[in-house]
Specification:
disordered N terminus, 11-stranded mixed β-sheet, 1010 residues, 29 helices, disordered C terminus, 23% strand, 6-stranded antiparallel β-sheet
Length: 1010
């Protein structure tokens, strides 16, 4: 069947119960309005709404705000295009056409019958333009208007004072005839109110960008008619504390959104007055943009559908790439497929937050809301029955949990504006006092991410186990103590300056002692895994010493463990905090109850739906979300602000706390590093470690039996309080063919083995975690001889989609690049003990070196070690492309030996190491020659004490030989050392001419030889 031209829509679907009508949209032109076909239908709900769903779990219910909103599921269908049309700018599209919109679809719960759904599909139609027939996109304002009218939302209980025509404008006109639009949005009373609407889709980056671009349209008009430019405001509109209002002349919804948790959402609701049936009527709405990507950990739409009992429909054959043709050939099937995606988005958030309820910005935001609510309830319980004057501050969440107070006109500033942290400044908060400011800022400087590294590279044919800490961050957060910001003397108990720390300083609580400090350190050479993180080139490394740096900011758990490992830790400045204690004297742990609620729900989901169920996965995300919210804004993260058209600080969350965030990551790092050190001392291998677990050849029973310098019992007590079980570890994978290349690049061909791709994008046709995936990655890494070619789709960024100038439409770009997956050198590879395995791939045999690592001595060494393989490419004029001068791969023994040689050169870049080695060889050569009778230096053969004779070498500019070397200088081993007679000659001449024990001073080295 030949495809109908784009825009010639069929209406055969009316035979299947769809009601058909036509509408016009004047957003692009009043003289030539765009035309659309609107199809509506009412259907029975098929979603699972039983009380046993995960929407009924206490933690999920705690995430709900209790505010009402009309939720509209939204989706679009489009096809790719690659044509150029100079006329598209007039109707708000790019001249370089990348896609054509086939349909817009909306779904809402029937306002009069919650067992039914109302559906609406809007199809762009051909209409007469000024230069012939054309098809335009729908404007966002018209889309809202159609959603309200086609779905009959004026019948909704939240539509106070609404009729099918809208609400009367006269109701917001005062006695003097002045119009007050704000009455619809703010003032309470008997008059009509704005309708709260939540527009939710799965991946709004694709759907919300499918409307008319008013900025592009106006830019086209201005460029064509420079003398008749329309008056435009520089700002997108008005932004208040709670809501925003877009510029009426250029209402651009993409200016009101941000990127959050993989979704496109609006941080503030947008006030919008839509036209009513005529000039006497209006449809005021407060619209919130939500994205199910941000509510599900970026899960697939099909998984969301399965979770709520609405299966995603399939499109047969290759129709999915030709949806415009599918609409023509199978209109009924097309409409069912298209509207079903909108239904899934609607039903998913309805089960999560309740029907006709406000949807949180993101799932982590909702989890933070639940955590804050549970903590607030606990604070109220602690001080129940006490006078309000006494209990008031102690039940204030911001004061007790974060040491922050609300900034008002009367508030005295505790931190200068330029020194304020964005996480609290953007929430109009500030530290309670000077001590709180000092403590908060020091904790923020100490924040680090998870521990990630590889300690041993190559093939492991023995059985290895991938072990994880169970509920790592929830357990850590519920273990740490709170600090007392409200103490009359401030949160800081004492400050130390320029002191060497000892374990006695941590007598109060060991690793939980409230402490943050700026420290320098040196670990014994016997420590396999130093535990104090140092930022180097954007990542955390763990060197043996702090090197030339003055120090780093660190938290108590790792400083305490460093002391346990025998490190010398000097503290330039450090603060010991006051512990917040309950009336019985026990430390306060405000995060324990919220996490227990979340973990109880996750355990119930595992039992009810299965260990690998989608519900369990979502609840796992819920349980892990508060950690991210504790740390939000602590490091001053920046993101694209579409409203201001600039990059700005992200700001904090409702529960951001540098103290809790820094301790939450520090404690697991300490636990993992304690584990690695104890396993190393027992002779076990630990090839890789990532955030909450590691790979080892020790069995689970061995790891379970470790004391971890006392950390094991501390962690297990928290686990018992949270779950009733003292289990600490769980085994995720086991394999006997582990190939470890670098951090997060571990491969096994065995079905139950580990598989971490190291950021590599699989070729099309290979399903992730399939046997084909395992075989492909294993063979690729074993046989690699250069950078790996990668083909991947790259989507426009949030900035590219929402910027005013040169805005891009949503369309993926296919990128071809070379990717290097090699050891990240967070530890120093060493040649000692290097072996190799031979692995067969097809008919070829490849060598895979097995390499050990040790800690770098200093951060400076890390930089040198990482610089070895930089600048390996050069431009090849003949090929017309960059080529590798030498392979960046470190896979074989020869390749690693090349690395070791190059590293040695860099470590000795100033020649000091080589010169020291040269002089050492000369000194030893003189000793061997003297002891074996080749030369005879009188004062070396004298009866003076040997120590004095050896000390005299330094007077000739040579290092002092050791007594042991002198004693064995006649042995066979020393005889095998080649003596460079040319090198020792000038020094021997000097030693013959000058007696260091005589009164005369020795001459300069080399003068005697001249």
């Amino acid at each position: 069947m030949a495809a109908t031209p784009y825009g010639e829509v069929p209406i055969a679907a009316a035979a299947n119960g769809w009601q058909v009508s036509r509408v016009a949209d004047t957003a692009t032109s009043r003289k030539h309005p765009a035309s659309f076909v609107v199809l509506t239908k009412t259907v029975e709900r098929t979603a699972t709404r039983a009380t046993g769903g995960f929407g009924s779990y206490p933690s999920v219910q705690g995430m709900r705000s209790g505010k009402g909103s009309v939720v509209i599921g939204f989706d679009t269908e489009f096809v790719s295009d690659g044509t150029f049309d100079a006329e598209r700018g007039w109707i708000g599209e790019s001249e370089q056409v990348t896609r054509r919109i086939v349909s817009y679809q909306f779904a809402a719960i029937d306002p009069t019958d919650s067992d039914r759904l109302r559906l609406a599909v809007v199809l762009p139609a051909i209409y007469p333009g000024p230069r012939g027939p054309r098809v335009a996109r729908l404007s966002f304002g018209k889309a809202l208007e159609l959603a309200i009218t086609a779905l009959g939302l004026h019948e909704h209980p939240l539509a106070e004072g609404w009729t099918a025509k809208g609400v009367p404008r006269q109701a917001v006109v005062d006695a003097a005839g002045k119009w007050h639009r704000e009455w619809w949005f703010r003032q309470k009373g008997e008059h009509a109110h704005a309708l709260p609407i939540t527009l939710v889709a799965h991946f709004q980056n694709a759907d919300l960008t499918a409307f008319v671009d008013p900025v592009k349209m106006h830019n086209t008009w201005d460029a064509s008619y420079p003398t008749g430019r329309k008056r435009r405001r520089a700002k997108a509109g008005y932004s208040g504390y709670r809501n925003r209002r877009l510029d009426d002349r250029e209402p651009d919804i993409l200016r009101a959104v941000i990127s959050a948790s993989a979704g496109m959402v609006s941080p503030k609701p947008v006030e919008w007055v839509l036209p009513g049936e005529n000039k006497r009527w209006a449809r005021p709405v407060v619209i919130s943009i939500r994205d199910t990507m941000a509510q599900s950990g970026a899960s697939k739409l099909s998984e969301l559908g399965d979770a709520v009992g609405v299966a995603k429909l399939d499109v047969p054959g290759d129709w999915i790439a030709r949806m415009d043709e599918y609409l023509v050939a199978h209109p009924v099937d097309f409409l069912d497929y298209a509207s079903n995606d909108a239904v899934i988005a609607l039903e998913y958030v309805s089960q999560m937050y309740g029907e006709d309820q406000e949807v949180a910005l993101t799932l982590p935001t909702a989890a933070a809301r639940a955590v804050r609510g549970i903590i607030a309830s606990e604070l109220a319980e602690r001080h129940a029955g006490k006078p309000l004057v006494e209990a008031g501050p102690k039940i204030n969440f911001n004061l007790v949990f974060g040491g922050l107070e609300k900034v008002t006109k009367k508030t005295e500033q505790t931190v200068s504006f330029e020194n304020q942290l964005a996480y609290y400044r953007q929430r109009e908060l500030q530290p309670l006092d000077g001590a709180a400011a000092t403590w908060i800022h020091a904790c923020a400087l100490s924040f680090r991410g998870g521990y990630n590294m590889s300690a041993e590279l190559g093939l492991f044919e023995q059985t290895t186990h991938d072990l994880d800490l169970q509920s790592c961050y929830p357990t850590a957060s519920s273990t740490i103590w709170d600090v007392d910001y409200l103490h009359p003397d401030g949160v800081i108990l004492r400050t130390v300056n320029n002191v060497e720390l000892s374990l006695d300083d941590f007598a109060e609580g060991g690793p939980l002692t409230p402490f943050v400090g700026f420290v320098s350190f040196e670990f014994p050479e016997s420590v396999a895994f130093p535990c104090l993180p140092v930022p180097v080139e954007g990542s955390m490394v763990y060197p043996r010493t702090s090197g030339g740096a003055r120090g780093v900011w660190s938290m108590a758990p790792e400083v305490w463990l460093a002391l346990k490992l025998g490190a010398r830790v000097m503290c330039q400045i450090g603060h010991f905090g006051r512990t917040l204690r309950l009336e019985d004297g026990t430390p306060s742990r405000l995060l324990r109850r919220p996490y227990k609620t979340l973990l109880d729900d996750r355990a119930q989901a595992k039992k009810e739906f299965g260990k690998k169920s989608f519900q369990q996965t979502v609840l796992k995300l819920m349980a892990n979300s508060p950690y991210g919210k504790l740390a939000q804004g602590v490091m001053g993260q920046r993101g694209w602000d579409a409203w201001a058209q600039e990059r700005d600080e992200v700001g904090g969350s409702a529960i951001t706390s540098p103290w809790h965030a820094s301790m939450t990551t520090s404690l697991p790092r300490a636990v993992l590093l304690a584990t690695l050190n104890e396993l190393h001392d027992l002779g076990y291998s630990t090839p890789s470690c990532t955030t909450d677990g590691f790979i080892t050849d020790a069995e689970l029973a061995v790891v379970d039996g470790l004391d971890l310098y006392g950390l094991s019992n501390l962690w297990r007590e928290a686990r018992e309080a949270l779950t009733g079980s003292r289990d600490m570890w769980e085994e995720k994978h086991t394999q006997t063919d582990l190939l470890n290349v670098t951090t997060r690049a571990n491969f096994s061909r065995q079905p139950g083995g580990v598989l971490a791709h190291g950021g590599y994008k699989l070729p099309e046709g290979i399903e992730e975690d399939s046997q084909a995936d395992r075989d492909h990655m294993y063979e690729l890494m074993v046989s690699r001889d250069g950078a790996l070619p990668v083909t991947m789709k790259v989507f426009p960024s949030m900035e590219e989609l929402t910027r005013v100038h040169n805005r891009l439409d949503f369309s993926p770009i296919v990128v071809h690049k070379q990717q290097t997956i090699e050891f990240d050198r967070k530890r120093r590879p060493v040649p000692d003990g290097m072996t190799a395995n031979m692995v067969m791939v097809g008919d070829e045999v490849f060598e895979v070196a097995h390499v050990q690592t040790v800690p770098w001595n200093s951060p400076e060494e890390v930089e040198l070690g990482r610089s070895v393989d930089r600048g390996l490419k050069r431009w090849d004029d003949e090929l017309g492309e960059p080529v590798w001068d030498r392979s960046p791969v470190r896979r074989t023994r020869d390749q690693w030996l090349d690395y070791f040689d190059r590293l040695q050169v860099l470590l000795d870049e100033d020649g000091s190491v080589a010169e020291a080695e040269r002089l050492d060889r000369i000194a030893k050569g003189i000793v061997i020659a003297q002891r074996q009778g080749i030369i005879n230096i009188p004062w070396l053969a004298s009866d003076r004490p040997l120590a004095e004779r050896l000390d005299a070498f330094e007077k000739f500019g040579l290092p002092r030989p050791k007594e042991r070397f002198w004693s064995h200088a006649r042995s066979k081993t020393e005889r095998q050392i080649d003596i460079d007679f040319d090198a020792i000659e000038p020094y021997v001449e000097d030693m013959l001419n000058v007696d260091p024990f005589a009164s005369a001073a020795p001459v300069e080295v080399g003068e005697g030889a001249s």
